[in-house]
């Protein structure tokens, strides 16, 4: 039997790490491996969720939301049963002291590092939620597991921070590309949603991962996600009408995101233990599903049915309201999942409704409802998820219509602009903001948060007792020795800063307490304060140097504005160099 010596394995890993750091081709190969793994994981997760739907509801393939009616009411008990399963999962992971890290948060704050346990928890919760019929999509766990696989592999290979972020984006994008059979969609998802920027250094690995995942999907027998055909050309009137639709979708997207937050706050006030809220949410979802099964799951089947059958305006509006209610209840009550595909379905509903309402005008102007549905899908999804090019590519790859892409991009860009101006967040970053995070996008701000006052302070300050007189100050601080001194009490507590020049004023009474000359008595910094807050304090106080105190008010260091600004510029230049692969 052949045994491989441990030191040979370690040496091989070291050589692999060096190769990956120095060779772009090697990194592309690594991204290809990640793409293949993400493709397999995505197909497997979809199969698990659909198997649960088949077990609970008896439906086949992907058609839970396409059911005409629920013939057996008792089958809807799957919803509270799924909530019970989530309660059990929550009990298992109750010892965790923090929420799981998703791919956007990981890339923005942690340099792409995602613990393996977080991937398992998110995947289990999302598959159970979708499998029992809650109104959430699987795209969140697809991206999470794809990015998680990349993160684990990258951490094992000790990749540089920017390389790890790129690999995580490539893995997440490959997973989303697999979900739709649309590699370009996956690539732009990586750029816009997970990495946060486009650069030439990212293109090859991200595209390689997405293409590989799509090939794996085909090899596993999964068909790409195709939508209905659309009109061949669009007039100026169409562009104007769909631009208005983009604004409408932005408003609806903001309303939905706000509703989720309001519902979550309301749920926190309800006297139901946190662990059992999904069970209560499942009970609330049952009557909605009984009225319209289109509220169940993400809505894949319902979207196709509605595009083919062209339902009435009243039907579309009723389902729209019910689906929004179902999604809000699902997320607020603790079901895990994303709004990517749910927003696509909601967008198709508002788009068709908009087209039908527009056609009621007395001037004979008309829109094709199917076209409006596809534009609405992209515009609402952009408002909630973000990524105008991602959705434009999705429409292109699923309809194969270039004329549609231009209209979709117009509506999507307007939707993005309105959402950014009025709201400022996507759904994922909004939820992180509500939790107290500083994230507004996937761009790497982890370096900014780690650059604290404690890391920038110096310890060679000059201190003078707060009870000292001007004469005693002059003895302790000779002119020319330092520009200022810190007043401290007997216990080391901070009492302000005295400029040396002020203490040497010729008309000053030598017996006067020097504490009367102190400035910035109430202005100081804590060691854990980040660089943005430090700069803000310098701006408001108009000081050139500040004291840093611990939780007991004792001075532990000082920091100057010039040094802070220099460190800030150095870190920005370093981040840009990493981003462009320099």
Detailed description of the structure:
- By secondary structure, the chain is mainly alpha-helical.
- The chain folds into 3 domains: 214 residues, Orthogonal Bundle (Clc chloride channel); 207 residues, Clc chloride channel (Orthogonal Bundle), CATH 1.10.3080; 132 residues, CBS-domain, CATH 3.10.580.10.
- It starts with 5 loop residues before the first helix and ends with a helix.
CATH superfamily caption of the largest domain? Clc chloride channel
- Counting DSSP E segments of at least 2 residues, the number of strands comes to 5
Kindly report the CATH topology of the largest domain: Clc chloride channel
Estimate the global geometry from the Cα principal axes.
elongated
Distance between the termini: 46 Å
Tell me which CATH architecture of the largest domain applies here. Orthogonal Bundle
Radius of gyration based on Cα positions: 29 Å
Beta strand %:
under 5%
- What's the CATH class of the largest domain, please? Mainly Alpha
Main location: membrane
Organism: Novosphingobium colocasiae
Domain CBS: 513-574
GO cellular component, one term: chloride channel complex
